[in-house]
Amino acid sequence: MESLSLNGAWEFKDGGGDGPMPAPGDKAQEWLPATVPGCVHTDLMANGVTPDPFYGMNELDVRWVESRQWVYRKKFHVPPTLLQHHAVTLVCEGLDTFADIRINGRRAGTTANMFIDHRLNVKRFLKEGENSIEIYFDSPVTHAKALEKREGALRVALEPHRVYVRKAQYSFGWDWGPKLTTSGIWRSIFIEAHNVARVAHPFFRLVSVGKEGAIVEVTANVERFRQARLNARISVAGHGTTLERTIPVRGTRVHCRLHIQDPKLWWPNGYGDQPMYEGTIVLLRKNDPVSEISVSFALRTVKLIQEKDQEGRTFIISINGKKIFCKGADWIPNDTFLPRVQNFTYSRLLRLAADAHMNMLRVWGGGVYESDLFYETCDRLGLMVWQDFMFACGEYPESQWFLTQVDQEVGKTLRRLRNHPSIVVWCGNNECEWLFCNENPGKTPDDMTGALIFGKILPHLCRRLDRSRIYWRSSPFGVGFPNDESNGTRHQWQVWSYWEDFHKYEQDRGRFVAEFGFQAPANRATLEEALHPDHRSPQSPQMEHHNKQVEGPERLYRFQAAHHRVAVDFGEFIYKAQLVQAEALKRAVEHWRRRKFLTAGSIFWQLNDCWPVSSWAIIDSKLRPKAAYFYAKRFFAPLLVSFRADKTAREVWLTSDIDDPVKGVLHLSLDSFEGETRWQREHACDCPPHRSVMIAGVPPTSLQGIDPARHYLRAQIVVQGTVVAENRMLLAEPKHCVFPKPRIAIDVKNPGGNTFTVWARSATFVKDLCVGLAGLDGMFEDNYFDLDAGGARTITCQADTTLRTFRRSLRITSLV
Fold this sequence. Notes:
single chain, alpha+beta, six-stranded parallel beta sheet, 14 helices, 46 strands, about 20% helix, globular
C-alpha cells in the first residue's frame, strides 16, 4: 500500500451565495491560504477576513458565512509508483457537508454527509506529476432550507431545516452553543493505492467467556482488485496470549473463531483493570503480505437488566455479570470549530472525568461521532460510553434518499467503532420521541416521522453488524410515555429549565437518569478572554449573549437568590453561581445514589463546552474546572456518606461502589461555625458491597435550642482509624447563615518541578474555600471544599511558574 497525504496548505475563496456579503468579506473573493484539516470560519479568521466569533457579540457579524458557497483547491504531485497500483482511492475522512469534488477539472464525486469517510476511485482522473483538486462546498443552510421546502416541514426544536442535513446539529445553534454553521475539509484527506486486495472493517467480538477461556469471533471484509488466491493470517497478542491462525479467504469475507485461555476482562473505571488485546489480520498472496490491519479490542460482556420491582421495571447495565451504577456526564463537541480540537483536549478532559470517579460518558446525539482518540482513551481509562446516533430533538424524514444516507452512515459508524469495549450502549437519538409525545398528547412514539429509523432501521443494523452491546431507542425512552419515572431512561428538566429549584430532585424516582443539570458561568479568566472590559458584569449585553438558553440569565439570578445573597460584583457573581450549580448536582446525585439500584444511573448534563459561555458544563471551554467539578469528585466517590432531610428529621446514609463490606464507625456531630461541638455521637456502620443503607437518624429533638444559621451537621465514616468518607449539611440556606469572618493561615511549598502544595488551616468554619491563581493557569487536585474550625487541608496544584510567582498570584475566596 502506498499513500499520499493531501493535508496541509490549500487555498480557498468565496463561491457565491445568498444574501449580501459585508465589506470585510470582499477579501475572500480572491484566493486565500487555507489549512486542512480546517473549516471556512477558522480560515477566514486566519486571513483577517472575520473577527473571532467567540469574542463579544462577533458571532452576529459572521453569520453571513453560512449562506455562502466556498471553494477549496490544492496542487499536488503524483509519483509514477502510485499510478502503477491496481486501485487508487481518494479518502476523505470528513467533508462538511455538501461537497462536489473535482480532480484535474473532472468531477470525481459528491458527498452529503459530514459524519463518515468517503472513498472515491480516482485513478482515471490522475496523471503522473502535477495534479489539482478542487472541492466546492454548497451552503449547508441554503441547501437544508431547499430540502425542507421540497420535502415539507417537520416538528423540530430550534432551526427546523437542520434535520434534512447529515451534519452536526449543534452547528445550527443550540441552547448552549452559537449559531456558526460550518463548511470545510474537517478531517484528514489523502490518496491511498493498493494492489490485489485490501482488508477492512475487522471485528474481534467476544462470543462467550468462562472457566474454559474465551471464544472470540473474528470477521473482516476483503475488497478485491484482481483475481488471486488469498489467505488471511489472524493473530492476537497481549496479557500472556499469543495466538496465530491462517485461513483461506473465500469471497470477500474473513471469518474464524479463536480460543483465548486465561482471558483478562475489561472493567469500568473503579471496578477493575482495562486490559486491551491487539488483533491483526494480514492478507497473503503466496505468503507475501498484500494488506494488513490491526485493532485493539477487549473482552467484556454487556447486559441490560430490566426486571419488575416495587416501582416498575429496573434499568441496570451489567458488565461481566456485575451490576454497575453508572456515574458520569453528557459529552458535547469540544469546539464549535471541530478541527481545532487538539489531542491534549481529549486527554485532559477524559482524565479529569476518570479522576472524578466517573465511569460513563454519554456522547450526545446533536454533535458528532467522536475521533478514534476519544474512544481509545475511554477504553484505556474505563469510561463506558453511551453512544447516541446523531439525531436530536425533532422528527426526521423518512424519504428513501434520507433512509439510504442513514443506512450508509450508521453502517460505517458501527464498523469503525464496534471494537471499542468502552461503548456499551448504542442509542437511537436524543429526545426525539419525548418531545414529540410531549407536544402531541395521545400520540405514541411510533406516530412520529422518523420512527422507522429509530424503531426498525437502527436496531436492525446493530443486530447485523454488532450484537456485542445494547441498543436503546432514544434518551429518554421507556414503556408508555417516553420520559416516565417507572422504567427506561429519564431526562429530569423540571428542575432548572421549568424553573423548579434543586430540592425537587429528591422527589424524582427515575430508573436511569441520563440528563439533568444546572447552569453556571464559565470561569472568570475564561470569560474575561471573551468579553470586552466594559462588559465584564453579570447583566452586560455581551455576558447575556454568552448564555444561549431562553431566560437563561434570569434563571441564574432566580436560583442564586434562592440560596445566596445575590452578588453584583462580577467575580463574586460567578463564584456564587458556580456554587449553586455544584450544590444542585450534589443534591441530585446523592439522592439517586442513595436509591441504588432502584436508580442505576446518574449522568448529568454536561461535562464540557464548545465556547466560552454560561452553560450546564462543569469544565469550561478553556478546560478550567468549575466548582461543580470538584464537588463531583466527592459525590461520585466510591464511598459516599450523605444526608437526607425530610419534614421532621435528617438521615445519614452510606453508599458503596466497592467489592468489600464497609465496617466502621460513623462520627456524627453538631458543630457551630465558631468551632463549638454541641454534641457528638458514634454509630456502628455496616454496609454490604455495592449497596446503599441508612446508618443513623437525627431526630428533631437533637436540633432544638440551636440557631440553624450558626450550626451545621458533620458526618465522618472511620474505618480502622482512617476517614474514608465525610460530608456536611447546613441547617439554613447559605444566604441566611451567619458565617464568621475567615481566619485562614496559608503556606505554599514547591516540592519539585511544576508541583506546588497549598496548606490551609482555619480557626473557624469556612464554607467553599476556593484557592485560585490570578493571571496564571493551574490545575488543582481539589478545591471548593469546607474547612472545619481548627481543621487543615493540603492540596496540590500543577502550574508552570516559580514559587515566588505562585505565592504572589494566590487568591483565597470563601462564603462569608
